[in-house]
Amino acid sequence: QVELVESGGGLVQAGGSLRLSCAASGRTFSSYWMGWFRQAPGKEREFVAVITWSNGNAWYADPVKGRFTMSRDNAQNTMYLQMNSLKPEDTAVYYCAARKSMTRATMTFSDEYDYWGQGTQVTVAS
Fold first, then answer.
1. What is the DSSP-derived secondary structure letter of residue 103?
2. Residues 31-66: pLDDT tens digits?
3. In the chain, what is the straight-line distance between the N-terminal and C-terminal CA atoms, in Å?
4. What is the pLDDT of residues 9-26, one digit of tens each?
5. Angle at 84 (CA atoms; ends 18, 98), nearest 5 degrees
6. 33, 51 in Cβ contact below 8 A?
7. Which of 93, 94, 86 is nearest to 124 (CA)?
8. Distance between CA atoms of 94 and 92, rounded to whole angstroms?
9. Quick check: 31 and 49 in contact, CB under 8 A?
10. How far is CA 32 from CA 17, 27, 82, 114, in A?
11. 62 φ, ψ to 5°?
């Protein structure tokens, strides 16, 4: 059974940084796509970024490009979201998600992902 566990959220001042982690277990993830989504109060869940476990290619939503970076540690089965220059509008619950063998055409759609973590709160104070 696949399990995804996020950590690293918290309260930070605008302009600060946080690194989120997503520890994955239960499968061999070499062919998986691992994504981050976020959901702010009263808003729909939105795509943040995705990485292919096999070769580390990553894509980002426009609002976070240049500020957020995804990476993964194959040995630890963990992926990371480094978030720099945080803004109050980045405040949300952040979720990691996984799906085997996606395409770029569907990678931004939350319905396409099979597995989800429980979420971690990120709050950016102005």
1. -
2. 899 999 999 999 999 999 999 998 999 999 999 999
3. 40
4. 999 999 999 999 999 999
5. 65
6. yes
7. 86
8. 6
9. no
10. 27, 10, 20, 11
11. -55, -40
3-class DSSP assignment, residue 13 = strand
Q: Which amino acid is at 67?
A: R
Distances (CA, A) of 40 to 37, 45, 52, 66: 10, 7, 25, 21
| Tokens of residue 18, six digits | 């946080």
- The pair of three-digit structure tokens given for residue 42, joined into one six-digit string: 């009263």
Q: What is the residue whose two structure tokens read 């989800």? A: 116
Beta bridge partners of 83: 18, 68
> Residue 6: beta bridge partners?
22
Element at 123 (helix H, strand E)? strand 120-125
Q: What gap in Å lies between CA 71 and CA 21, rounded to an integer? A: 10
Percent of the chain with pLDDT over 90: 88
Q: Which two tokens stand for residue 77?
A: 């089965």
**Residue 98 and residue 106: Cα distance in Å, rounded?**
13
Q: Residue 45, class by beta-carbon neighbours within 10 Å (0-12 exposed, 13-18 middle, 19+ buried)? A: middle
Cβ distance 8 to 20 under 8 Å? yes
